[in-house]
Amino acid sequence: MTQLTTTSGIPVTDNQNSITAGPRGPVLLQDFHLIEKLQHFNRERIPERVVHAKGSGAYGTFTVTHDVSKYTKAKLFAAIGRQTETFLRFSTVGGEKGSADTERDPRGFAVRFYTEEGNWDLVGNNTPTFFLKDGIKFPDFIHTQKRDPQTNLKSAQNVWDFWSKAPESLHQVTILFSDRGTPDGYRHMDGFGSHTYSLINDAGERVWVKWHFKTLQGIRNLTAAEAQRLAGVDPDYAQRDLFNAIATGDYPRWSVEIQVMDDARRAAWEAQTGWDAFDLTKVWPQGEFPRIPVGILELNRNPDNYHADVEQAALSPSNIVPGLGYSPDKMLQARLFAYHDAQLYRVGTNHQHLPVNRPRCPFHNQQRDGAMAVANGGAAPNYDPVHADVPAVGGFGHGDAGWPVEGNAGRYDTRATDDHFTQAGNLFRLLTEEGKRNLIANIAGSLSNADAATQDRQIGHFLKADTAYGQGVAEAIRALQNQA
């Protein structure tokens, strides 16, 4: 049996009884083993994520299967057959850490690639779109998904009041209340980078890109009734399913694919449709921008310790490597700041030193000190002098020349003229008849809990997307009210 010690390595001779003054006490403050245990116990929780609080994770590998070197110089794509270690964290978005895995909610799909040039984090969802196009509204939206400040209860009124006044959310709302809103665990759903990113090749040429992860297990969704039942009998359903599948060698896999758009195609498409290629509430039609295969992602190793690896995983879309880049997507631009800032608050200044966050390649910077500075630079200088004789590198670095920026600085609101309805209507018309019935029933069950003004406003959006969509929801709500 391994000798029990304090955290400082001092042998513990008795882990059953406190040191007391006589058999009945009182307990003496000199019992450092007791004090250390209680102090650590009081501090063993780190702040819960504001979003994506409940999650599961696993390690795996990404293997290149197709040559995409004409688009990117990133070394992880340099040769067919090349493998890169990965970590993938799944999550629900709006619930607390103890919430059920089967709630109707988007699912986080955050992948870290431990490349030889540093960590690349592709932090997305199981949906290609989102509810918003500007990060300034993100805190407001998330507050509607959380608990009401007076009642401390979830509020359908708050949720639908926000959505009904933000028609840009309609596309994502349609996805959420379809069968895709309750996926059957994490293995049977697709993942998306969601935002528009960019790829840069050796010549410094850039294309815009959307990332897709297509499940090779096949899409499977839960009915609303089954999701609700599982929330009661097995709230950790998705965690259990993922862990057990990997433990028994049934490794889940996804085909990694990209959509590509160069600037000329972007300008023509935007002129034709009136849609913004960088708008997170829109998709790029796959008929015009077909998916291009890149590789296979496989999850094949469960973490040895959930807290160390899954809870302390600190991913950020700002982590990119040479050959990859960002875009003018307003939501992405906000997340480039917000995610890293959240990790500094939640895990700590030196969260990149933890094993799950540490790059697998050598790294060097002049950052020093702070709490838990494991890799603190040794005797190397803690500053970088001015190098006046070195040619300046333009753009964002990494060989990305950037993109032109024009216009006056200001706050621009295009919502009044944007098309929020066509793509949502297209999605509705793509659904099977059963899928449409399920979508309408799911929406009606939730929207019926909002007030009449909110219902009318939201139904107006559905009608603009598709007449049958809006009429179906209105009739379903009336039927529920007549039953009450």
TrEMBL record:
One of its GO terms (molecular function) is heme binding. Belongs to the catalase family. SUPFAM superfamilies: Heme-dependent catalase-like. Its cofactor is heme. GO terms for cellular component: cytoplasm. This is Catalase. CDD domains: catalase_clade_3.
